[in-house]
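Predict structure. Chain length: 184.
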Amino acid sequence: MTGMGRLIYVMGPSGCGKDSVMNYARERCAGNGTIFAHRYITRPADAGGENYVSVSPEEFQARLDHGLFALNWDSHGLRYGVGMEVDLWLRHGVDAVLNGSRGYLAEAARRYPDMVPVQITVDRDTLRERLMARGRETREEIQRRLDRADWFDCTHGNMVCIDNSGRLEQAGEELVRVINENGG
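Prediction complete.
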């Protein structure tokens, strides 16, 4: 068995383009051994966005009760979980990239002290435009998300910040660089 893999914990406000940046990096890193974890979410399967597993609130709770999540949190009226398979991947020396939560950063860092947190940022006007374009929220919900975008003081010794206000390729290549550093 090889050494421990790295957990690359990608986070940022809703609408900042995390999924797009991660999808770009997933394509560019295909074949390098890095695995992109999916999340289990109590969101309908047809809601669009990221590649996730839709589960009912009852199934989510059953998985939680059986200890099947490495990480889990609640946000925006939904429940999010990352399966225990991430721990297996890391133990086998595989780097894992996951879409995390800024509000859960401290707990994730406690559980994975050597993780590499990556914060995707975007200027406020671009964030507003992206939230409106995706059409998932009402104007009031968009305003709440914009207000919430600045709530979190995300600090961590290994933090990498990637600005996604411009071209996707630029932010995507920055994430690819992080993945490929000392791994991938």
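Summary: The domain at 7-179 is CATH 3.40.50.300 (Rossmann fold).
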